[in-house]
Amino acid sequence: MRKEYDFSAGRKNPHAARMKKQITIRLDQEAIAYFKAVSSEVGIPYQSLINLYLRDCATSRRKPRLDWRASSSAP
Questions:
Q1: What ranges do the domains of the chain cover?
Q2: Dihedral sign, CA of 64, 67, 70, 75?
Q3: What pLDDT sits at residue 57?
């Protein structure tokens, strides 16, 4: 291993715009357990599976069906 490296001729990664961005997201234990179980069946990491699912939803413009009244105790 060298003591110093010369990066003066280096260039930016041309694929950097397509790379993933690290974020923090809070998921409940049931959702994590579900994706971990499915990921073990299909053989890919669960975080990759979650990313693929979210990308599929975004590509197809799928929106969640939410009924706030059913999950809320307020009238």
A1: 27-61
A2: positive
A3: 94
